Amino acid sequence: MILSVIVMNSEGKPRFAKFYDFQPIEKQQELIRSVYGVLCSQAENISNFVEAESIFGSF
């Protein structure tokens, strides 16, 4: 299940964010920061998809 689509630049500024499950603005910003943190810690040759469990918790 796709929970959100986030497009951000290399500095972490979101260019597009769509959440398919309602999240308050504060939670959205927290999730975007978390996604950026995960992506920055990955090697450059790794996919930029993030598993939901690592950010959103288990569903």
Structural class: alpha+beta
Q: Numbering strands along the chain, what is their spatial order in the largest sheet?
A: 1-2
**What Rg is obtained from the alpha carbons, in whole angstroms?**
11 Å
Distance between the termini: 9 Å
Brief descriptors of the model:
alpha+beta, globular
Task: Describe the protein in words.
- The structure is a single chain.
- The chain is α+β, with helices and mostly antiparallel strands and 59 residues long.
- It has one domain.
- Helices cover 37% and strands 19% of the residues.
- It has helices at residues 25-41, 52-56, and strands at 4-8, 14-19.
- Strand 1 and strand 2 (14-19) form a beta hairpin.
- It is globular and about 30 Å long.
Topology:
Layout: E1 4-8, E2 14-19, H1 25-41, H2 52-56
Antiparallel strand pairs: 1-2
